[in-house]
Amino acid sequence: MLRISGLFAAFVILAGASLSPAAAEDKTITVFAAASMKNALDEVDAAYTAKTGIGFSVSYAASSVLARQIEQGAPADVFVSADTDWMDYAIAKKTIYDASRVNLLGNSIVLIAPKDSKVDNVTIAQGFDLAKLAGDGRVATGDVKSVPVGKYAKAALEKLGAWQAAEPKFAMAESVRAALTLVARGEAALGIVYSTDAKVDPSVKIVGTFPADSHPAIIYPVAATTTAKAGTSDYLAFLRSSAAKTIFEKYGFKFLVSPTI
């Protein structure tokens, strides 16, 4: 769902016009991105640096944390959220140029266990008993009240009729990567994370995949902040490029836009 055209052109003009010469000469782009983006976005950014010589300062955390930091004045040029809610929040707080927003990537959520766990090949469907599966262990995911992966997880479990029994077993983490770490270390018997996270950590295994229709669509919107420096629009264009698409898909993300270059 590409929302660029004339609106994006307007953003480019506005952003360029509002920046000082010193800011325009800054060779670093500051990105605030959802924790689940780290491996893929690091590679995308390295490709952009190789092409342009522009470097990056990237902060990875839960989308909720990043949106609030931007609201509080933290310097950032780009925000990548793991759900549309926190991008909507940032736009409502007038910290984001709505005209630059693009729903860039998609993902899925999976059930994971430590690599040596006896749990395997779980069918996740209506009546799925996560509480019984966890036994005496804990289930790790992001905070279900604020962290996108936790919100998706709770929505899926509620729809499948598994939330009420499983809720007491949950260990709420500050981000999806923190939840992944709990499972990788064996501190949680199971975890619910994005499929892309599970694929980059050899200490865990995917034991089941949540049906796509059991939770809201997982969408990663990206946008420039209202304080974005000159050159940010070129970077946003690169994120929509064929080169970026190849990298994101290598890590398991779904590319939701038509490549522009």
Fold and architecture overview:
There is one protein chain. This protein is of the alpha/beta class and 261 residues long. It folds into 2 domains: 5-106 and 218-255, Periplasmic binding protein-like II (D-Maltodextrin-Binding Protein, domain 2, 3-Layer(aba) Sandwich); 109-214, Periplasmic binding protein-like II (D-Maltodextrin-Binding Protein, domain 2). It has helices at residues 5-17, 21-24, 38-52, 63-71, 84-92, 130-134, 148-159, 163-166, 176-184, 195-199, 232-239, 242-250; strands spanning 28-34, 55-61, 78-80, 102-106, 109-114, 139-142, 170-173, 190-194, 204-209, 219-224, 254-255. The strands form 2 sheets. It has a 6-stranded mixed β-sheet with strand order 2-1-3-10-4-11. The chain has a 5-stranded mixed β-sheet with strand order 7-6-8-5-9, sandwiched between helices. Helix 3 packs antiparallel against helix 12 (242-250) and helix 4 (63-71) packs parallel to helix 5 (84-92). It is elongated, with a radius of gyration of 19 Å.
